[in-house]
Amino acid sequence: MTRALIIGGGIAGPAAALALARAGVASEIFEQHPGPADEAGVFFTLGSNGVDALGAIGLREAAMDRGFATPAIELRSGTGKPLGVSRITTTREDGTPSQTMRRAELYGILRDRAVAAGIPITLGTKLVTAADTGEGVVATFDDGSTAHGDLLIGCDGVHSRTRTLIDPGAPRPVGAGLVNFGGYTSGVRVDTEPGTFRMIFGSRAFFGYATAPDGTVWWFANEPTSGSAPADLPSRDAAELRRHLGALFRDDAGPAAELIAAGHDLARPTLTHLLPHLPHWRRGRMVVIGDAAHAPSPSSGQGASLSIEDAIVLAQCVRDLGAVPAALTRFEAIRRPRVERIVASAARVNSSKAATGIARRVRDLVLPAILRFSGAHGIEDTYGHRIEWDRRIEA
Which of 125, 134, 276, 337 is the 20 to 30 A CA-CA neighbour of 351? Predict the structure, then answer.
């Protein structure tokens, strides 16, 4: 039986393992962290396309049960001026809405299903090197162990080791100039419809919030920074974080300062990293998918969705073309045009969050027109994308 070695146990890894299992391919997951990655991140929005892709591995309903529908974003300036509304879900009436959920929930859904399917998961094992023998791949880990497979799939994120093994000259991730914060607030009412995100281009930072069905407000903040390394992150306890974030939004209209002051379960600050254009996704029997290949900005709302799509399409290619380089070549040809369009669009949005001075005033003037005339085509291209599992992949 064909066997795949999957490096990384976050979202893309288990999704790939489950899709491959449906295609009749055995796999084993190797995760460098000693425990599950449940605490990585606070919450995120899984696009309607990502929810739809989960249907290929029988997890669509599970994702719907764990999140709440978030079909649109209201954009405002720091003065409270409405800038427009952006849909973030398919426009089809029969489509699945985008879902906002705790990241740990999606990790748990995927991991538990993989365990139930009997897929081996080895924790605390870091990939050091991998050799393509021409007939298979031998992976060597930091504990001296080795594993043999017919192909190796790098699902190891934006700081991927697999990517550098495929191409030692691959571009390194770069800082996006934003520090991410997040938390939850109970007992504070806001003037938005449940499930609608309101996002504010504040004078010092960017703020977004939505109300969950239980009345809890889920919020995040992006603060511009010139730092790009972990040492550049602010080291503050929860009280200091509240004071710091409250000061960022004290002069802006909206409930940001109040939500932050009453916030709980504050996430540790993280840096956003972007991956420049990657010339090589694959070499021989090795390939990278998800953030290891294309890492879009969080502004896209598509990181997890694109990773799940990658996993499904890769499994289809292996199913129909075999665990051979030709399958990986076909996978890249199918996926690269789509993800690069989305990555480029997200980069433009990301840069607008850090706009200052004249650039901020220009953004606030032109953004309403951009939203009015962008039309439904781009939204449908991103969020209405569907993968048909039974469609045969041709070489």
Answer: 337
